[in-house]
Amino acid sequence: MKLSTKGRYAVTAMLELALHENERPVTLAEISQCQGISLSYLEQLFAKLRRRGLVEGVRGPGGGYRLARPASEITVAEIITAVDEKMDATRCGGEENCQDGERCLTHELWTELSRQIYEFLDGITLAGFLARPSVRAVVERQRGETAGLQVRGGARSAA
């Protein structure tokens, strides 16, 4: 099973919202710049996330997106399924018709793997993941890089 960029980007974008959960709404342009994700791709993902009740839009000046529920209540599995990703390691998509319309020899093995992957990701909340020391170190590094870009960008425009 391979997780596509759709699922990876959706989780990354939701983590970015969780980082600012108690601060302010975050624009898709900010997420795009900070995480290197195409703005048009983010727009597509956020339409799905909004439909599934994971994010809400804030209009007007200072608007953007924020989590619709606390980060401690949103799981990685929920995000991935919200953007139509399947956590299925079978060849047949769980239909049990993998070998001439019948169940193949390894169907049960791949079904169990799929279930365990889902349970693993369903046990990880945005808040729990962001609390990990190794993840916090990446957050601090990215914030430093973003601040450096803003300072250099501001200095360039002032010259």
Write the layout of secondary structure elements.
Elements: H1 5-19, H2 28-35, H3 39-51, E1 55-58, E2 64-67, H4 76-82, H5 107-122, H6 126-130, H7 133-158
Antiparallel strand pairs: 1-2
Helix pairs in contact: 1-3, 1-4
Explain this structure:
This protein is mainly alpha-helical and 159 residues long. It has one domain: Winged helix-like DNA-binding domain superfamily/Winged helix DNA-binding domain (Arc Repressor Mutant, subunit A, Orthogonal Bundle), CATH 1.10.10.10. It is built from 7 helices and 2 strands. The chain has helices at 5-19, 28-35, 39-51, 76-82, 107-122, 126-130, 133-158, and strands spanning 55-58, 64-67. The chain has a two-stranded antiparallel ribbon with strand order 1-2. Strand 1 (55-58) and strand 2 (64-67) form a beta hairpin. Helix 1 (5-19) packs across helix 3 (39-51) and helix 1 crosses helix 4. It is elongated, with a radius of gyration of 19 Å.
Short description, anyone?
Residues 151-159 have low confidence and may be disordered. The protein has one domain: Winged helix-like DNA-binding domain superfamily/Winged helix DNA-binding domain (Arc Repressor Mutant, subunit A, Orthogonal Bundle).
